[in-house]
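User: quick one, fold this
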Amino acid sequence: PGAPAAWAEALERCGTIGLERALRPAIALAGEGVPVDLVLSDFLAGPTYAALCADFPALSGIFGPPGETPPGEILYQPALARSLEAMARDGVEAFYGGAVGAALVEDLGPGALLDTRDLAAHRTLFQTPLGVDYRGHRVLSAPPNTQGIALLLLLGGLAFARDDTEPFLARFMRIKEQAFAVRDRCLGDPALAPDLAPLCEPAPLARLAAGGAVGPPGPRSAPAGGDTTTVAAVDAEGNAVSWVQSVFEAFGSGVVSERTGIVLQNRLSLASLHPDGPNALAPGRRPFHTLCPALVLRDGACRLAVATPGDHGQPQTLAQVIVNLLDRGMNIQEAIEAPRIRHDGGTALMHESRMDPQALAPLHASGYELEDVGPWSRLMGGVNAIHILDNGVRLGGADPRRASYAIAE
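Assistant:
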C-alpha cells in the first residue's frame, strides 16, 4: 500500500508544494464529480467489471451497475474525497496509522490478509535508477521490483545490433525475447533480486545483441484490461518526472473499502508460487511490477520524460517510441502515433493495421502468428511524453489510443 507515502515523500524530497496543496484537485474531482470518459465507460460495460461486481457488490456502489455508465456521466466518489481530505489535513499518517487505514482494514473484515500492522510497517524505497547508453543519450528506468531492466536491455541490445541486413522488427523481437527472459528470471523483491546494473554495461549488451533467436516462445500471457495512470511532467527549472501508478488489472482486485472509497490492487497475482527466487510469494515481500517509467538524458540534462500504461507491453511501447524519436527523426507526437507491435509470449504477435505489411513479413516467416488489432489499439499503450529541445522548448506528446493529454501551464 505504497502510493500515499510515495506522494508525500516525493514532494518532501523534490517538490515545491506540500501534500495538502497537491491533493486539492483530486479532492475536488472526487467530491464534486468528474465526467466519465470513453475508456472508463468501456471498462464499466465490460465482462471483467461485471464479474467483479458479482463478487464485490460494493464496487458498483461507486462506479454504477455494469453497462449503465455512458460517457459524460458524472462520477462522484465522496468517500474517497473524505479519505484524501484526511490525508491532506493530517498527513499520510491518516492512512498508515490513523482513521483512514483503520477503516480500510475494518471494511476488509476478519481474516483479511492486510491489517493495520502491515500499513504501519510500510517504508518507501528511494533507489538508484538503472541506465543504458543509446544513440548519444542516457536512458534511465526503475530497478526491481519494476521491469525497467526489460526496456534498458531492449534498447541497449538494439544499440549494439550491427547487422544491417536483419530487418528491424526481426531484430527488435529477437532482442526483446532475450530481455524479457532476463526480466522473468531476475525480477522480484529488491532485497532479493540480483544487481542488474552490470547487465547494462557494453560487453553484456554486445553479447545480447549478437545472440540468436531464443527458441520457441513460451506460453502467452493474455494482456490485462489494465488500470494504470501515467504522468510525464517538466517544470520551469527543467526538473522532470516520469510517474506510473497502478492497481494492475481493471479495478485491481475488485475489493473496495466502502467507508474510504479505496479500491485495492492485485499486483500480488504476479508473485510466483515457486518457493525459490526473488519473486516468491511470502509475507512482506514486494512482487514483480510491470511499471516502467523512463527519462532520457543527454549531457546530464533531461531531454525526454515518458511513460505509458500497458502491463507487459510497456517496455515494448517505450522502446518503439524512443527509436522513432532518436533514430527516425520523428517529432514526439509522430513518434507516439506511429503504428506499433506488441508480444506477450507464445506465437501470437499483435500489430496495428497501419503497420507496413512488408515490415511484418519477416516476423510471419519466423513463426509468429500475426494478430491485427485494428489501426489504433489501447493494447499498444497510451504514451504521455515531454520532449525538451536543445533551445529549452518543451514539446508535449499524447497518445490518441487512450485518454491522454498534453497540457502546458
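User: anything notable?
Assistant: Confidence is low (pLDDT under 50) at residues 214-220.
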